[in-house]
User: Fold this.
Amino acid sequence: MHFSDLGLPVVVAKALEQAGYDTPTPVQAEAVPAAIAGHDLLVSAQTGSGKTAAFLLPALTRVSERSKGSGNGPRVLVLTPTRELAQQVEKNALVYGEGMRFLRTVTLVGGASFGFQTRALSRPVDIIVATPGRLMDHMRSGRIDFSRLEMLILDEADRMLDMGFIEDIETIVAATPAERQTLLFSATLDGIVGKMAERMTRNPQRIEIERKEESGNIEEHLLYADDNNHKNRLLDAILKESDFEQAVVFTATKLGSEEIADKLSDMGYSAACLHGDMPQSWRNRTLNDLRRGRIKILVATDVAARGIDVPAIGLVVNYDLPKQAEDYVHRIGRTGRAGRSGVAITIAESREFHRVRRIEQYLKRQLAEAVIQGMEPTRRPPKGRRPQGAGARDGQRRGGYGDRKPGGGYAGKSGGYGDRRGSSGPRQGGHGGERRAPRAE
Ligand code: AMP
Assistant:
């Protein structure tokens, strides 16, 4: 399947070629033709699957045709949970719509100047990308005219609900024309998301993209730690032993992200934190510095890190476990972007074993348990949890960390993590440079 088979306007197909996209990802191959045909869609797809283009390409296809309505209001509205994701979506729209001379996009997110957004809304706009809260502010002051809206897109709908946006979303949806087309993207279509989706779509097509495929290029490891001190030593070792261009370390709290970023800076890394209490201008600056490679290690909380799309991120470390299982997928999706490979290492305290299990149940697979030589945990998770051939996900060993042998023993090591004897073992290709990935055995 090629992009030319999807029914896209020539300018958009050209822009994709320039962006280096050869073939549609599975979610694009399914969602784009269905959306161009005019269907409402309910799509379960994760970040990293190419879902942004899956909804932007049909949106741009619509916008490339003349509007049947009159007025200045948006023809497409994209709702996203976070500011960073909204900015990323707009950026992608401008890349895919590069050849569309008259395309006008506006991002409406909190933390940015009202005046600037209001001025932007006084001119005709094709696509608005917004977080629900700020959009509601503009709607309340009567600045949004939805009369010619053709397409409503909800990106990461489950996340928006988790963040308490349900009432805002219902209000926004009720303000849009009933004959609009609705595309809803979510990590899951179960439960409350599914119910909301039913209410706001008509005869939708359901597209479910297997979770497994998306982390196929991400090598995942699970390290157990005894306590906080042990976690810190593991983090040090991971950062020292891994070969990466840039990394993201996830913490559970804002304070934790600041403390770890400070500590890493003291150790000589160019590190910075990113969390929701930082002013937006500061968050933007940090993200820009990350994109430009000025920051090597970003220490972030979950919400702040959504939407980060920096291909040079070769390593994700979950210093603290995510609060919700689906956040695990979002976190590791910061690496392995744009077809590259990545490594994601999760540190869990032994007593958090049940939380690891919840993540594994969500993923429908076990995480490969590993150890770093000389830093093995003294406490072990309960026997029943022992991995069956850990590290053998998809029947493949990928080397890197020392995988724990079935039956509870450890693979023999001679230092560091994994087997350093064979340090010229198979390498994982990566970001231009090669990632050192010695084999465990
Ligand atoms: P997303 O899931 O939308 O966040 O996209 C993940 C990454 O894949 C982004 O860096 C996109 O630019 C990239 N991407 C999306 N679609 C394609 C494609 N068909 N070919 C290559 N890269 C893609």
Q: What stands out?
A: The CA atoms of residues 274 and 282 lie 9 Å apart.
